[in-house]
Design goal:
Elements lengths: L2 H17 L4 E5 L5 H7 L8 E6 L3 H8 L3 H7 L4 H15 L3 E7 L14 E8 L3 E8 L4 H20 L1
Length: 162
């Protein structure tokens, strides 16, 4: 894991957000705050980052972010439908302009034939203009999956803002 790479990506994201006086938020599950940690490693990030949400359990996804119980039951926590609701909830609660939501199976257990270890769903939402969900499949151990997820999330966010 190259934490310097995460800091560089976070710095680039912050520069784009600050240029237009925008704010960022995150809703994290399997990354457990690694995305937010990479953001706060940037000096001055409080100018563009106000809050994030670590909603590891289904109960917290529902109570904190407003993910519907029906969505969780029908699609499971690791689904594009759930991260879509997570990012919408994070933006609603934080009043940010750009949000990223992440839910996945970092391992070593918890996988299934339908959703193997390394399966991660990510959603990006930028104001009301852009909304993207993607399912990714990463190789490696728990920390490597988490790291690759945050890299992917930051890189795509930068692309969306460009």
């Amino acid at each position: 894991m190259d934490l310097n790479n995460l800091e560089i990506l976070s710095t680039n994201l912050g520069a784009l957000l600050q240029k237009d006086n925008m704010y960022f938020t995150a809703a994290e599950s399997c990354t457990g705050g690694l995305l937010s940690q990479s953001i706060v490693s940037v000096p001055g990030s409080s100018a563009w980052f106000g809050s994030s949400f670590i909603t590891y359990s289904n109960i917290s996804k529902h109570k904190v972010l407003g993910v519907s119980k029906e969505t969780l039951k029908s699609f499971g926590a690791v689904s594009e439908q759930v991260v879509k609701e997570m990012v919408a909830g994070a933006l609603r609660e934080s009043k940010a302009n750009l949000g990223i939501a992440i839910s996945g199976i970092a391992g070593p257990g918890g996988g299934s034939p339908e959703r193997p270890v390394g399966t991660v769903c990510i959603a990006w939402k930028f104001n009301e203009d852009i909304e993207v969900q993607e399912t990714c499949y990463f190789d490696g151990n728990r920390n490597e999956v988490r790291y690759q997820t945050v890299v992917k999330a930051l890189e795509k966010a930068i692309l969306l803002l460009n």
